[in-house]
């Protein structure tokens, strides 16, 4: 909160400073009052304000856990959140066989370092895919990195349209059991129940009340084929099933709509999903199956305002008021030796100075549009933005 208030105060003061510097100097033509009267005004105490949440992607992740130094670097940015993927295909290694050990470690480390977790649930195991898996090959100048989000193109899991609960309905209720034939519902329920406050890991480690993972993101960038090759109704169903299964495991869970890439070919994706929910008899009673809308913005800072504003319009048109998170934004640097060093004219990259400017500008635009959280992508450039044959951190 303090960071955001200081940031906004500085932005407010800059125009005032400009006016002062541009005012006529002593002896210049025209009247100029040099000694203004001092006016004393009693102001009421400043009420505690709630500022936007601040997080960083990939401070740590299950596939490449951070050491103490990396965690300290993440925390030193002022971040309160670590956003990372919980890959289904790396947990359910055979039908019904779950291994949570690497995810347990990162959840424990996040909590030990005072970080909250934005957990992204995604990645259908091959044995549950409804069609053969396809992967998009990396571009020649962008080798695949260890800390980039990935998911098989064939994403729609088997059983997605089966009832969520064993009573043959999708309606949650006390004591109801998850239908194991709905593979996605079972995975979401197990993940949330394991890491929630009071859940399996909390009981094992005697966490205090309220400690655990509370925020769950249903997939990532479903408007990009590299993450979701199913239909729009398929994703709407996945979001709905994930929401209801998560709430069955933890009624206080905050469920995030699968963050949007804002693919220019599918700019209306969120509104199109919401239009499907308009006709769902359960939608109004269950918050249109999400508590938070997440969106992404890269390269052009002003688009952070645009994407947050559009999402707000979609909500307002239905009389809904939900937090909007910009939980990926950033631009890779090309001149940060011994890290990635590229041709200065390479596309969609910036100098470190431009990167710093972008970070301020994207935050300003997002806040101006009403964003409730800003997450920078990412702590280290582990996405392969470097020449092949190198392996800089």
Topology diagram in text:
Layout: H1 2-22, E1 53-57, H2 68-76, E2 81-87, E3 92-94, E4 97-98, H3 101-112, E5 116-122, H4 183-195, H5 200-205, E6 215-218, H6 232-249, E7 254-260, H7 269-278, E8 292-298, H8 302-316, E9 324-330, H9 352-369, E10 373-376
Parallel strand pairs: 1-2, 1-10, 2-5, 5-6, 6-7, 7-8, 8-9, 9-10
Antiparallel strand pairs: 3-4
Helix pairs in contact: 4-6, 6-7, 8-9
Describe this structure in words.
It is a single chain. The chain has 393 residues and is α/β, with parallel strands linked by helices. It has a single domain, classed as Alpha-Beta Barrel (TIM Barrel). It is built from 9 helices and 10 strands. The strands form 2 sheets. Strands 1-2-5-6-7-8-9-10 form an 8-stranded parallel beta barrel, surrounded by 4 helices. Strand 1 (53-57), helix 2 and strand 2 form a beta-alpha-beta unit. Helix 4 (183-195) runs parallel beside helix 6, helix 6 packs across helix 7 and helix 8 (302-316) runs parallel beside helix 9. The longest helix has 21 residues, at 2-22. The two termini are 31 Å apart. Residues 5-44 and 134-145 have low confidence and may be disordered.
Coarse morphology: globular
CATH topology: TIM Barrel
Order of helices and strands, N to C? HEHEEEHEHHEHEHEHEHE
CATH top level is Alpha Beta
Average pLDDT works out at 85
Number of helices: 9
List the strand order in the largest sheet: 1-2-5-6-7-8-9-10
Beta-strand content bin? 5-15%
Q: Which structural category do the helix and sheet elements fall into?
A: alpha/beta
**What's the helical proportion of residues?**
25-40%
Q: Report the strand count.
A: 10
The biggest beta sheet is recorded as: 8 strands, parallel, barrel
**Quaternary status of these chains?**
single chain
Named at the architecture level, the CATH assignment is Alpha-Beta Barrel
What's the number of structural domains?
A: 1
Distance between the termini: 31 Å
């Amino acid at each position: 909160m303090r960071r955001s208030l200081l940031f906004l105060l500085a932005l407010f003061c800059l125009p005032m400073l400009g006016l002062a510097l541009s005012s006529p100097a002593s002896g210049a033509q025209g009247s100029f009052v040099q000694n203004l009267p001092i006016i004393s005004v009693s102001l009421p105490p400043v009420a505690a304000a709630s500022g936007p949440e601040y997080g960083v992607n990939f401070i740590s992740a299950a596939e490449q856990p951070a050491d103490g130094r990396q965690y300290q670097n993440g925390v030193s940015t002022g971040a309160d959140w670590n956003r990372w993927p919980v890959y289904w295909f790396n947990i359910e290694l055979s039908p019904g066989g779950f291994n949570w050990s690497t995810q347990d470690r990162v959840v424990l480390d996040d909590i030990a370092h005072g970080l909250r977790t934005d957990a992204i649930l995604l990645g259908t195991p091959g044995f549950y895919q409804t069609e053969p898996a396809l992967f998009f090959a990396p571009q020649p100048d962008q080798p695949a990195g260890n800390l980039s989000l990935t998911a098989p193109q064939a994403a729609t899991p088997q059983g997605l349209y089966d009832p969520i609960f064993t009573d043959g309905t999708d309606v949650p209720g006390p004591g109801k059991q998850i239908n194991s034939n709905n593979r996605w519902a079972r995975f979401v329920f197990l993940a949330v129940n394991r890491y929630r406050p009071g859940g399996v890991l909390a009981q094992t480690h005697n966490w205090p009340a309220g400690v655990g993972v509370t925020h769950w993101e249903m997939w990532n960038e479903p408007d990009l084929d590299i993450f979701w090759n199913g239909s729009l109704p398929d994703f709407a169903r996945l979001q709905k099933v994930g929401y209801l299964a998560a709430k069955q495991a933890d009624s206080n869970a905050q469920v995030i709509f699968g963050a949007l890439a804002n693919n220019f070919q599918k700019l209306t994706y969120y509104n199109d999903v919401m239009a499907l929910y308009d006709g769902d008899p359960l939608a109004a009673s269950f918050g249109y199956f999400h508590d938070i809308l997440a969106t992404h913005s890269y390269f052009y800072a002003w688009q952070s305002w645009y994407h947050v504003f559009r999402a707000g319009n979609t909500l307002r048109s239905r009389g809904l008021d939900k937090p909007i998170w910009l939980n990926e934004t950033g631009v890779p640097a090309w001149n940060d030796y011994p890290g990635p060093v590229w041709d200065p004219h390479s596309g969609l990259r910036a100098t470190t100075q431009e990167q710093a400017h972008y970070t301020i500008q994207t935050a300003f635009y997002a806040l101006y549009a009403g964003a409730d959280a800003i997450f920078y992508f990412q702590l280290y450039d582990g996405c392969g933005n470097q020449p092949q044959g190198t392996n800089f951190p």
